[in-house]
Amino acid sequence: QVQLGESGGGLVQAGDSLRLSCAVSGFTFSSKSMGWFRRAPGKEREFVAAITGVDISKYYSDSVKGRFTISRDNAKNTLYLQMNSLKPEDTAVYYCTVSTSIHSKATSQQAHNYDYWGQGTQVTVSS
What we know:
- By secondary structure, the chain is mainly beta.
- 3% of the residues lie in helices and 48% in strands.
- The chain has one helix at 105-108; strands at residues 3-7, 10-13, 18-25, 33-39, 46-51, 58-60, 68-73, 78-83, 92-99, 116-117, 121-126.
- Strands 2, 4, 5, 6, 9, 10 and 11 form a seven-stranded mixed β-sheet that branches. Strands 1-3-8-7 form a four-stranded antiparallel β-sheet, with no helix packed on it.
- The N and C termini lie far apart (40 Å).
């Protein structure tokens, strides 16, 4: 049974940092590509970042590039998202997800290419 559990969200001020974690089980983590998406109130789900399983390529949305860093610890079966210089517009529920089919930046940005999703963790950035 595939399980993904996000943690690390919270309420912070603009300019602060947070690190999200996603603990996974039920599949061979090291070989799978992983991603982070977010959904802000009243908006559609949005791609944030992705990391492939084999060559560890990393992809970012333009809105977070340079501020967020995606990483993985295969020994701990855990995915991370380090978020620096947070802005109020980063406020959203953040979801981790796993994919067996992404292979480029274009495919990593499409939610339908991901197979399983976590329940999400709330990040709120005050101005």
